[in-house]
Amino acid sequence: MITVKEADTIISGNIKKYPSVRVPLQSAFRMVLREDLIADRDLPPFNRVMMDGIGINLSAWEKGVRTFTIEGIQKAGIPALNLKNPEACLEVMTGAVLPQGCDCVIPVEGVEMVKGKAKLKDSLNLTRMQYVHIQSSDHQARARLVSKGSRLLASQVAVAASIGKQEVLVSQMPKIAVVGTGDEVIGIGQKLAPYQIRRSNSYVIQAALELCGYNRVFCFHIRDDKDELKTRLGKMLEDFDVLILSGGVSRGKFDYIPEVLNRLGVKELFHRVKQRPGKPLWFGKSKEGKPVFGLPGNPVSTQVGVYRYVLPFLDKSIGIWSVPEEFVSLEEDVEIKTDLTYFLPVKAESRQDSCLVGSPVFPNGSGDYASLTKADGFIELPPDTFRFAKGAIARFYRWKI
Ligand code: AMP
Ligand code: MG
C-alpha cells in the first residue's frame, strides 16, 4: 500500500497535456485559454461620456457662463458631433463619444433644462474632463488583458467578447467515460427489487466533472461479468481519453476490474492507498498512455476520490497547474480511529474574522452518501495522528470548482 503523497506523485507523473482547439466563444465557458487575450484597440476606445447630462467647453464656465444654449444631442452610437459655439452646450448620453469642442460633462442632476437652454445649478465645481472616461485610460491597444492558462469564467468571457473573439483557442476537453459496475446496482428508472440499489456514483462523478467544465462526459454501467467488462472496457479504451470506473476494485470474489484491466494491457501504477475512505483506489495507464481511475464503489469513497485525485489530474491535463489551495480551521476537537490519512467531510463557514472554519460531518460509514449533502467538501487529516484540536488547520477540498 502506498501513501496519499506517493499516489499524488504517481498520478502527477502521468499527466499529459491535451491539444488545443478553436471553439466558438459561447461553448468555451469554463475551458482553459491557450492564447493570450490581447486588446485590439484602446480601452476605452474613445473619450467616453460617463453620465447623462450636457457637454460644455470648460473655458466658457471659467469665463462665468452659467446658461448654455443646447445645440443638439450627442447620442451613444453616433459619430462625435462638433460643438459649434464654445459658449453653448450639447446634451450628452452615457456611452456616447465626447463631442469635439467639449471637455467637461455635467450630469443632469446639476442642470436645469428650460426652453432649449441648460442652466447650471449654483455651487457646481467643475474640472476638465470630469465624467469622461478617457481613451486608453484602462488599457492600451495591444495590452495583454488575460493570460493563456486562465479559465474562461464570466469576466474572461466578457473580455474575449469585447475584443471580438468569436472563437478562442482553448485546451481540448478530454472525452471521459464514467463506468459504474455491479450486479446489484441498477438504473434510476428501473423497477427495483429489495436486494438492489439505484446507481448514484455515475451521477456524482458526471456532476462533479461537469461543474468544473468537463463537458464530454459519457456514463455507462457494466455488470460484474469478466467477459462483458473486457469487451466493453476494451472498446472504451479506444473511444475515450480517460476512464473513470467505480466499484469492483476491492477484494471481493467479483471485483474483477484490476484483473480485466491488466488483461486489456492497462498497466497498474498503484492499487490501494493508505487512506480512509477509499483504500482500494486503483490507478493505471493504457498502452496508449490513457489514464484509468478505479474508484472504490462506496459512494463516499467515489465522491472523495473524484475531488481528491481525478479533478486535480484533469485540471492539470487541461493546463491549470496552480489551483489556490483552501484551508479550514477545525471548529471542534476531532478524534480519528485510524492511522491512515483521513478524509473528513466538513461544513465550511466563513467567520466574521474572515477565517474559514470547518465543522465535521461524520458520515455513518463510507456508504452514507446522503450525509455528504450537509457538507461543503472534506478535509484531509494527515496519517498517524489520532487527535486534532479545535483550531487546527487542515487542507480543504470543496465540492465545487
Ligand atoms: P464495490 O466497490 O464494487 O465493492 O462496491 C462497494 C459498495 O458500493 C457496495 O455496497 C455497492 O453496492 C456500492 N456501489 C457500487 N457502485 C455503486 C453505484 N454506482 N452507486 C451506488 N452505490 C454503488
Ligand atoms: Mg461491486
* CATH domain fold name of the largest domain: Molybdenum Cofactor Biosythetic Enzyme, Chain A
Rg, rounded, reads: 30 Å
Number of domains: 4
> On the 0-100 scale, what is the average pLDDT?
97
Shape: elongated
- Major sheet summary line: 6 strands, mixed
CATH architecture of the largest domain: 3-Layer(aba) Sandwich
- Give the N-terminus to C-terminus distance in angstroms: 30 Å
* Count of β-strands: 28
What percent strand?
Answer: 25-35%
- SS class: alpha/beta
How does this structure look, described?
This protein has a six-stranded mixed sheet. It is of the alpha/beta class. It folds into four domains: 4-18 and 173-317, Molybdenum Cofactor Biosythetic Enzyme, Chain A, CATH 3.40.980.10; 22-41 and 148-171, Alpha-Beta Complex (Molybdopterin biosynthesis moea protein, domain 2); 48-133, Molybdopterin biosynthesis moeA protein, domain 3; 326-398, MoeA, C-terminal, domain IV (Beta-clip). Helix 5 packs across helix 6 (257-263). The chain is built from seven helices and 28 strands. The longest helix is centred in the C-terminal third of the chain and has 19 residues, at 299-317. The mean pLDDT is 97. Magnesium ion binds at residues 181-182, 224, 247-248, 297.
Gist of the model:
The chain contains 7 helices and 28 strands.
Itemize the secondary structure elements and their pairings:
Layout: H1 4-12, E1 20-24, E2 37-38, E3 48-49, E4 53-56, H2 58-62, E5 67-74, E6 89-92, E7 104-107, E8 111-114, E9 117-120, E10 132-133, E11 144-146, H3 154-162, E12 167-171, E13 176-181, E14 185-186, E15 197-198, H4 201-211, E16 217-222, H5 226-239, E17 242-246, H6 257-263, E18 267-271, E19 275-276, E20 282-285, E21 291-295, H7 299-317, E22 326-330, E23 334-335, E24 341-350, E25 356-360, E26 377-381, E27 387-388, E28 393-398
Bound molecules: adenosine monophosphate and magnesium ion.
